């Protein structure tokens, strides 16, 4: 039988799921988005699924996650949880987005457990901390580098406690741009 006459076997690509706030939502910018670069480098190997929600903090994300749970069905190569930038906003200047540090910790831990309960192995879950706040370029007065560093440390602590990988983007950016 000719191979063109046979029913082709369907291919299910493993997926990399990016879950986060506006830094994830806008990461698909075709000119310079980090998810676009990732998708390009993983083409024909993985699908990159972006679930980014502008303005969200970990409270919002925690309520949303069960509603998008089917995103994690099928083969998963990696899940990146990239939240904390809005949580780290000043409690007085930005009441809507700020999440107290210990609540941020609990929310991240809950999300990691949720992913594991959905069948995502711990070695495929990555927590990414908020990036360093560039307060000189930020037009609102609701961010600080010290506050962001505290949230980045908690992100690492949650990852360490769950025995999963983490990326301290805040520290990496500071190390890169020290000069």
UniProtKB/TrEMBL annotation:
Database matches in InterPro entries: Iah1-like, SGNH_hydro, SGNH_hydro_sf
Domain SGNH hydrolase-type esterase: from-to ranges: 18-176
Residue stretches spanning the membrane: none
Protein name per Swiss-Prot or TrEMBL: SGNH hydrolase-type esterase domain-containing protein
